[in-house]
Amino acid sequence: MYCDPRFSRVREVFERQFAEGQELGAAFAVYEDGELVVDLWDGVADRRTGRPWERDTPAFAYSCTKGVAAAVLLHLAEQGLVDVTAPVADVWPEFAANGKESVTVEHLLSHQAGLPVVEEPVPVEEFEDQPAIAARLARQAPVWEPGTAHGYHALTYGFLVGEVVRRVSGKSVGELVAAEIAGPLGLELWVGAPGSVIARTARLKAADRPTRTGAKPTTDPRAVAPASDGPAVTPADGGRAVTPAVGEEAADGGPAADPLARMARAALDPGSLMNRALGNPGMHLLEGGANNPVILRAGWPAAGVVTTARGLAGFYRSVVSGEILRPETLQEALRPRVDGPDRVLFLPSSFGLGFMRPSMMFPMPSPAAFGHSGMGGSLGMGDPERRLGIGYVMNKMSNGVSGGLRAPNLVRAVYDSL
């Protein structure tokens, strides 16, 4: 492990979270101005076998994938292969069905398309057939008028963005990541992991269920979803998830005063928008859930990245430095397209073109920060003003109350050290 003395408080926070039992295995990495200044790892990669977490242990980081997929599409836009302001149907004609002819690529990237749910159940046999899942979405009508509201497209973001990428390049997001980003830059990052990587990937452990004697309740919104975009009890070990983060309108048809209360009510409703959005395709249908090799190799562009903390931090280091996107492209991508109450998550969220911006759902110490969190606690982020690239991965999934502050605490320690 390595930690520049200037960042000693980061190591203190990392070690304290292990000492307090918040972690099973985890890694945290920071690049400052292109230099690796923090590279920490500890714990157990697989609690069943006792396999230790090594320097090169990768982990499945759920929606941290969305920032990587956005960079792939934006790079294609730089090449003139796609116009993000143009209708999706220009490159994917079938998508125009059911009133979606005016939906733009920008709407897909900023969660405004009104397609947060795959309405038709996706069979397990189709999990590795992304074009087939995309075709299901192309047939659907939007839940809301596209462009009039935003709501987190937890899984559908990837199938939509991924199909645009495939239509204009002939390749998948994962293939382009390997050929044009991770390969040339030497990053330990895969959107669709090969067998040799799957064999050493950390095994996720489902979140501990809160009990009456467990963690005290909190009203801090960061403890609900700071670096997580999904269930309180995750399907990492094959169990069905119950989400605390979503639902529909209040029972009386009007917005509830307290979004946290609406989230709590939605957690009990299997038909709530977020429960439906997160549950199809259903990872829980596979033995081991997200640990199953089918998921690890499928390369879903919304939830499919397998990476080390160093690989994720290195990705954002390279985005910030201009190695992946031109500075003007990044600047335009970070301009918030939506900012306010989320139709799926309830809490205020903010998005540029595929990247999260600071909000209640993405609490950052700096307004310049951008990136994406992943269900259970993982986080990838960059800061062009501070020239930072940060990555955090772990295998003990957060239940949103007892473990939800791990990544924000580490990020705060980084900024406090600057």
Task: Give the SSE layout.
Elements: E1 2-3, H1 8-19, E2 25-32, E3 35-46, E4 51-52, E5 59-60, H2 65-78, H3 105-109, H4 130-139, H5 156-169, H6 173-185, E6 189-191, H7 195-198, H8 259-267, H9 273-278, H10 293-298, E7 305-307, H11 309-321, H12 327-333, E8 338-341, E9 348-351, E10 370-373, E11 379-383, E12 388-394, H13 406-417
Antiparallel strand pairs: 1-3, 2-3, 2-12, 3-4, 5-7, 6-7, 8-9, 10-11, 11-12
User: Which segments are poorly predicted (pLDDT under 50) over 5 or more consecutive residues?
Assistant: 211-256
Q: Name the helicity range.
A: 25-40%
Encode the helix/strand succession as letters.
EHEEEEHHHHHEHHHHEHHEEEEEH
CATH superfamily: DD-peptidase/beta-lactamase superfamily
Tally of DSSP β-strands: 12
Q: Note the gap between the termini.
A: 20 Å
Shape: globular
Quote the beta fraction: 5-15%
Q: Average pLDDT across residues?
A: 88
Determine and state the CATH class: Alpha Beta
Major beta sheet summary: 7 strands, antiparallel
Any guess at the CATH architecture? 3-Layer(aba) Sandwich
How many helix segments?
A: 13
Radius of gyration (Å): 19 Å
Compute the number of structural domains.
1
- Assign the CATH topology: Beta-lactamase
**SSE-based structural type:** alpha+beta
Protein name: Esterase
InterPro entries: Beta-lactam-related (IPR001466), Beta-lactam/transpept-like (IPR012338), Beta-lactamase/esterase (IPR052907)
Region (Disordered): 204-241
Pfam family, one: Beta-lactamase
Provide a quick synopsis of the model:
InterPro entries: Beta-lactam-related, Beta-lactam/transpept-like, Beta-lactamase/esterase. This protein has 418 residues and is an alpha+beta fold.
